[in-house]
């Protein structure tokens, strides 16, 4: 179990996916250049994910119900958007064979750009005591954060 106090107080968790419920938990934050609008648009441009997210091989079109499928590290996930507040929050649940992930983002405008907080909770089908995959998925989520941070940190296009 992970300490719920490790979670940012502004993060919203769906039932069953808090850090206390997770087999693996990952949290990262940084200030990136550009506006929250820019960060939000990059993160929610799902069709573009395979061009910059490591291990993301394919994405199905987003449906009217805000769900889609992602082939990530050779595993198919059905993804459901759980929270979508333009330019400030987004969260999605990904359900795959034997693993469930929830990733949630909080974007806040600061003087230097955008303060970004991302938290990930991983739950596996196996009981926590027998779970060996969640650590792998936790590491993959750490690698994902590094790629997302790099993408968000690219200088925004100038509007001269």
Average pLDDT metric: 84
**DSSP summary: helix tally:** 2
SS-based class: alpha+beta
The radius of gyration over CA amounts to: 15 Å
Low-confidence stretches: none
What percent of the residues sit in helical stretches (DSSP H or I)?
A: 10-25%
Number of domains: 1
| CATH architecture verdict | 2-Layer Sandwich
The CATH H-level homologous superfamily: START domain
**CATH fold label:** Alpha-D-Glucose-1,6-Bisphosphate, Chain A, domain 4
Secondary-structure element string: EHEEEEEEH
Sheet with most strands: strand arrangement: 1-7-6-5-4-3-2
- Largest beta-sheet characterization: 7 strands, antiparallel
Would you count the extended β strands for me?
7
CATH C-level name: Alpha Beta
Strand residue content: 35-45%
Shape: globular
Distance between termini?
50 Å
Task: Set down the secondary structure blueprint.
Elements (H helix, E strand, L loop, with lengths): L23 E9 L3 H9 L11 E4 L7 E6 L2 E11 L3 E8 L2 E12 L2 E12 L8 H21 L7
